[in-house]
């Protein structure tokens, strides 16, 4: 299969492919999504095949607005309406109990709930509108690898496996959306993102955070809960921002004759100089929000470095605000490995 790029000028071609049950990746403010008609079970099944994704891992349904939910959701809580008024379009995914049979089970992972989001990207909203159906849109990458923040990342992973990619430039947020489960008594964050617990509580009051790790037998309610995610091929270690020093970690690695790459703030990279084989600057101003935006792109860049690396060392940040989302992704990418002096 040939994978083609599409643009605003050729949007109609992407629309036709999706209507025929093919897969087309699309841009959002978070990461690129792998699109298929959410009402077409055969098309959605192709998403799992293209990504190599477990079929009990539910998919987020992308819509053009709140009115789309009436076709699928049993009842929309008042709190959810407040959140949608405040944060849609934007990086917030909401989970609701759905009308039985309104969506194929391949979308929901066999659950009685489904996840919905309105992306903040005009080109993709036009795509969904013209297709005439909501689109599933998991990250458009090989399952388990760092999420794609450019069309080039998508092509690297899925060339020959999908029909096309709607080019929309680099994503502005760089991390997947916050996922909030609205199907229980108290709204629960299942996946942290740019929108934090504080952001949500300012609108609706109490929100809880799910600290539970999925077991092998439980069905995840949200993407990113159960399976290995965000991992490049190269080994990744975190550097404890309180108890460790990059220079010490690099020195120890070089004693073992390892080629070391560093993913960190500009000052850290500058201080290390020629001691390292490769580097990628996460942030020039030292903020975690900028680091989060560049995390996946940095992991991919170092994983594909022209001189193969043995080890990548990555800067950590306090798990406060967006730092919680950043560290959630980094812990999974590294398998929890952290260097402490």
Question: What is the count of helical runs?
Answer: 11
What ranges have pLDDT less than 50 throughout 5 or more consecutive residues?
Answer: 213-218
SS elements, strand count = 16
Mean pLDDT over the residues? 94
Explain this structure:
With 341 residues, the protein is α/β, with parallel strands linked by helices. It has two domains: 4-209, DHBP synthase, CATH 3.90.870; 235-339, Threonylcarbamoyl-AMP synthase, C-terminal domain (Rossmann fold, 3-Layer(aba) Sandwich), CATH 3.40.50. It is 31% helix and 18% strand. The chain is built from eleven helices and 16 strands. The chain has helices at residues 11-19, 41-51, 78-87, 105-108, 122-131, 151-158, 197-204, 246-255, 266-272, 288-303, 322-334, and strands spanning 4-6, 24-26, 33-37, 60-62, 92-97, 113-117, 135-136, 164-166, 178-181, 188-191, 208-209, 235-239, 260-264, 278-281, 311-315, 338-339. It has an eleven-stranded mixed β-sheet with strand order 1-8-2-3-7-4-6-5-9-10-11, with helices on both faces. The chain has a five-stranded parallel β-sheet with strand order 14-13-15-12-16, sandwiched between helices. The protein is globular, with a radius of gyration of 20 Å. The model is unreliable at 213-218 (pLDDT under 50).
């Amino acid at each position: 299969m040939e994978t083609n790029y599409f643009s605003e000028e050729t949007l109609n071609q992407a629309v036709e492919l999706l209507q025929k049950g093919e897969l087309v990746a699309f841009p959002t403010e978070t990461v690129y999504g792998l699109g298929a008609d959410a009402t077409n079970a055969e098309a959605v099944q192709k998403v799992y095949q293209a990504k190599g994704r477990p079929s009990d891992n539910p998919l987020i349904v992308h819509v053009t607005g709140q009115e789309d939910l009436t076709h699928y959701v049993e009842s929309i809580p008042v709190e959810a309406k407040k959140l949608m008024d405040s944060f849609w379009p934007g990086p917030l995914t909401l989970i609701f109990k759905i009308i039985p049979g309104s969506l194929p089970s391949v979308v929901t992972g066999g659950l009685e709930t489904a996840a919905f989001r309105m992306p903040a990207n005009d080109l993709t909203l036009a795509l969904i509108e013209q297709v005439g159906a909501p689109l599933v849109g998991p990250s458009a990458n090989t399952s388990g690898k760092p999420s794609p923040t450019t069309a080039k990342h998508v092509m690297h992973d899925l060339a020959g496996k999908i029909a096309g990619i709607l080019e929309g430039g680099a994503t502005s947020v760089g991390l997947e959306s916050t996922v909030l489960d609205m199907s229980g008594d108290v709204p629960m964050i299942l996946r942290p993102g740019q929108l934090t617990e504080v952001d949500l509580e300012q609108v609706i009051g109490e929100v809880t955070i799910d600290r539970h790790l999925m077991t092998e037998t439980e069905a995840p309610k949200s993407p990113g809960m159960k399976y290995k995610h965000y991992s490049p091929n190269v080994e990744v270690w975190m550097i404890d921002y309180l108890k460790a020093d990059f220079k010490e970690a690099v020195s120890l690695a070089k004693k073992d004759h390892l080629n070391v790459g560093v993913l960190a703030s500009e000052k850290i990279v500058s201080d290390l100089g020629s001691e390292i084989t490769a580097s990628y600057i996460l942030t020039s101003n030292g903020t975690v929000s900028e680091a989060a935006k560049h995390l996946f792109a940095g992991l991919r860049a170092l994983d594909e470095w022209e001189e193969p690396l043995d080890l990548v060392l990555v800067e950590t940040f306090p798990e406060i605000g967006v730092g919680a989302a950043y560290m959630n992704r980094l812990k999974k990418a590294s398998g929890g490995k952290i260097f402490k002096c």
